[in-house]
Write a structure and sequence with these properties.
There is one protein chain. The protein has 338 residues and is α+β, with helices and mostly antiparallel strands. It has two domains: 189 residues, no CATH class; 105 residues, no CATH class. 18% of the residues lie in helices and 36% in strands. Strands 1, 6, 9, 10, 13, 17 and 18 form a seven-stranded antiparallel sheet that branches. It is elongated and about 80 Å long.
Length: 338
């Protein structure tokens, strides 16, 4: 079987800097020393820490093992580093495209959703008519590398009246604590899957119907709208083509049956790839009294033939291609059937 050749993914390594915590995990139940006594409290604010648990195992003098709450200061940032979730990053990457996912008519305007960076790169699900597009964009969490977290104990001060519980006692939030950070440095990785990016399925046979169309004419009209949108992008160059066909087959498929859909040509793919990289390079936001901004993006136009080189920018298994030359093509995974 002849293998598909060309650039199969565009991978990248991201370096970002910031200050403070932008992605909190909320209040955490822990043991806290109050007035000389250990008490169970739930007023410690904990940022998102990879793999952190608020419980630990202890053993008594009889050799019996018990599970108890940790103290707020018991955090190992080497074992449980600070991170910004990829969901948080995705939100800020695409938030300029305001889409009301709860709008009662959204299922009637899926073409408007599809003709956007959100529709083409982030992906979507429209529950009412089960239209969906799987995101070709993979992003890892942004993991903090300097690991300089702090434990801060805080309390109410001044002559303000302290809050009371329903029973009249002093509320536990009169004394609270946080795990905080100063300057931060993050590292993350991402990848754009060319096969998933280049093809927009309009068939419900495989559960990946991006939009409902009933005639070939509607399919061609949608392809024209996609072309117009991609041509409007900052990085659009050359002939941009979005081609509708009623029977696209995945290369190497044994059976002749394909699916109706739209295939993007190399220039259209490249315009979307460059637009996405630019969005990542210019990502920056402040949230929850902290901020983060991307400093550098290293890119690899990956034409791997061996699966172990699939994400070589992360593993370092192979030399990367940092630029795409004009004679290098993106891999095309689909061909017309009868």
């Amino acid at each position: 079987m002849k293998k598909v050749t060309g650039i199969k993914s565009v991978d990248f390594k991201i370096t970002a800097y910031g200050h403070g915590v932008v992605n909190w995990n909320g209040s955490t139940e822990l043991n806290t020393l109050i007035d000389g006594k250990w008490k169970k409290t739930n007023n410690h604010n904990m940022p998102k820490l990879r793999g952190y648990t608020n419980k630990k195992q202890i053993e008594n003098d009889k050799g019996e093992t018990f599970e108890v709450l940790k103290e707020a200061s018991e955090v190992d940032f080497d074992e449980t580093p600070l991170y910004i979730s990829q969901n948080c990053i995705r939100y800020h990457l695409f938030k300029e495209e305001v889409i009301d996912w709860q709008h009662p008519k959204i299922h009637e305007n899926v073409d408007a959703v599809l003709c956007s960076m959100t529709g083409l790169l982030r992906g979507y699900v429209i529950p009412k008519n089960e239209n969906k597009r799987t995101s070709p964009l993979l992003l890892t969490d942004f993991t903090e590398k300097d690991k300089k977290g702090n434990f801060e104990q805080m309390g109410r001060s001044g002559n303000k009246e302290k809050q009371k519980t329903k029973s009249g006692g002093e509320a536990s939030n009169s004394l609270f604590s946080k795990t905080t950070f100063g300057d931060t440095k993050y590292e993350a990785y991402g990848s754009i899957n060319i096969e998933q990016l280049q093809f927009i399925s309009l068939s419900n046979a495989n559960g990946q119907e991006a939009m409902i169309i009933t005639t070939d004419k509607e399919g061609k009209e949608l392809a024209t709208k996609l072309e117009s949108y991609i041509k409007s992008l900052e990085f659009a160059k050359g002939e941009i083509k979005a081609e509708y066909h009623k029977n696209w087959k995945r290369k190497g498929t044994i059976f002749a049956e394909g699916q109706k859909g739209i295939l993007l040509n190399g220039n259209a793919i490249n315009a979307l790839v460059q637009q996405m990289i630019s969005m990542i390079e210019n990502l920056g936001f402040n949230q929850a009294k902290g901020f983060m901004y991307v400093e550098n993006v290293e890119v690899d136009y990956n034409d791997f033939s061996n699966p172990k080189d699939m994400f070589r920018i992360k593993t370092g298994n192979h030399q990367t291609n940092t630029t795409k030359t004009e004679d290098e093509d993106y891999a095309i995974y689909f061909e017309k059937g009868e």
